[in-house]
């Protein structure tokens, strides 16, 4: 026994020297990975692979971008390719299938660069992976379906690449999956049923079509949902019960019908619904909890370029950045909006291109410098001189709407 204890350090030392402490399989995988990628920069100062010297005694402590398990043979547990520094152009080349030999890997990260080719199918054999983040490169092909079988996957970020194909239905089985970011690719097909405890879903700027998953199939835990810039359609009633949402972006799709009143609440502090085909009114603040619609600093609501009608209610007064332009709102704007603009709480209020008849501002009150207000092309002569308004170029030069378009909404007309 004593003999064994004395020998043990020696054995460990010998195997460490022989294998450089690191598993030989992992070491040869790292070699393959390096051989298939290159630094775009030629300056060794901000190059990533400078430290990857395969004659070094302990790659686990000297290679940039890897961490290893403690015990010998050490296994690579996280791999981060690229420096991630803003002055580094990143890597070029392809992702070697040899990554799949790093069987203890829990995190795989590739920073911004111009890496091309597909995501190796074999990645799906790395059962311990919990984070896959391969963003801002030029990866092509479809997302390997094997990724959607990884039992420990928590975060999948493949945004800003050129990925095609569809999102497989097996994604719904991944109960550990919390964060899915596939934005800015060319992914098509429909949005499948999602994992029940998903927190963050970004599918923006793809080629998705069809409707959102049915109401009872939406993850109630969702806090962040963006599907902006796709070809999605159908009603928004499926979102009614998502009470945890703080960020919602459905802009630039073909959604129609009314906006569920449950989405008008201050905890949903960023809501982008612009450029759809939404109809109906902005609801009244709920009588039971009017405080639920007291929006704070940083809040943004964009309902522009829809077909919303009726008179504005107090619900959105106080939103810091508020776009209501290019709808069919009528009547007088409630005083609370005007007060919020003149107190500087609302910093942007776009109301142009509606059928609004009155913006009840007190004569001579100076507009705070920080405020961008646009009231043109409504059924009134704006009470604020054109030179004091901050209208976007797209608002056009006309101060008011032609009278013949307004007669139907002119309540003061006999
Ligand atoms: C994984 O490692 C084995 C043994 O070193 C090797 O034969 C095989 O080619 C490797 N796999 C890949 C995908 O590189
Ligand atoms: C928008 O909605 C209206 C009325 O529901 C419908 O007639 C029209 O076709 C829709 N437009 C688009 C682009 O979906
Ligand atoms: C609304 O009707 C009144 C009374 O006929 C008229 O004086 C006013 O110019 C009209 N306003 C607009 C914007 O058409």
Automatic annotation (TrEMBL):
> Is the keyword Repeat assigned to this protein?
yes
State the UniProt keywords alphabetically.
Leucine-rich repeat, Membrane, Repeat, Signal, Transmembrane, Transmembrane helix
Q: Which SMART domains match?
A: LRR_TYP
What is the designated name of this protein? Leucine-rich repeat-containing N-terminal plant-type domain-containing protein
Which InterPro entries does this entry report, sorted A to Z?
Answer: Leu-rich_rpt (IPR001611), Leu-rich_rpt_typical-subtyp (IPR003591), LRR_dom_sf (IPR032675), LRR_N_plant-typ (IPR013210), RLP29 (IPR053213)
Q: Name one GO cellular component term.
A: membrane
Question: Signal peptide span per the entry?
Answer: 1-19
The Leucine-rich repeat-containing N-terminal plant-type domain is annotated at 26-69
Q: Quote the subcellular location field of this record.
A: Membrane
Pfam families per UniProt:
LRR_1 (PF00560), LRR_8 (PF13855), LRRNT_2 (PF08263)
Organism whose genome encodes this protein: Solanum commersonii (Commerson's wild potato)
Q: Does the keyword Transmembrane helix apply?
A: yes
List, in alphabetical order, the GO biological process terms annotated in this UniProt record: defense response to fungus
